[in-house]
Amino acid sequence: MDSGMARCKDPLVSVLMITYNHEKYIRQALDSVLAQRVTFPYEIIVGEDCSSDLTRQIVLEYQARFPEKIHALLPARNLGMHTNCIASLRECRGRFVAWVEGDDYWNSPEKLQAQVDYLQSYPECAICCSRARVIYEDGSREPWDYPIWDRIVFQLPDLLKENFIPTCTAVFRQGLVLEWPAWIRELSFCDWALHVLAAQHGSIAVLPATLATYRVHAAGAWSGMSPEEVLRARQVFYDRLGAYLPTQYAPMIDSLRLDIASQLSKIGS
How many CB atoms lie within 10 A of CB 135? Predict the structure, then answer.
């Protein structure tokens, strides 16, 4: 079910925000998107996945205040992260899609303009992201920025080695991924998979500014996993990619599989 309310006409950018039980964070996420200073129309697609807290009520409150900007998807039952993400993506009408989950937020009101300007200036670029500030809700570590590299332009082989794209910073061209492979639903995450699929069609730009904040907390889908769970999730990911991507990537994926198997054997010993 969706809101049925009037929507932004001809958005250049769709901001994709999936959310579940983000009552503590969703206001900051939405406020950071609404604060963007841009020269183009944009919409915010919020996939609210039947939260058990007050997230849905907050989303409805914001939609009532900004009906021309916010389009809420309100399923009658919990879809799960992958189905919610795919359903929300299908509602995006912009030429570009910007990601931010309901527990993260954007740091700069110039973020969206800077990234869209870059993508329009470099048509060979499929994804434009930036550094993100990583903060730990429990205070266990000091905040830090990621990734911190001098290099700006990357290609698919770089992304296969490591998911260096903070999802809360990513802006990609709509239409690069027309169909999601069925195996996406077997993964413990969907952002890295989407980035890889999109990066088959162009380069990846990492802007040196820190334009968003990624929040690490116990309820996070990825940050709540143990080191062994992370390795096993990556193992499944590479198994599926090995069967999906062109054969030119097979030697690299085989090497990455062997490295994970080695790390798992050390954990089990």
Answer: 16
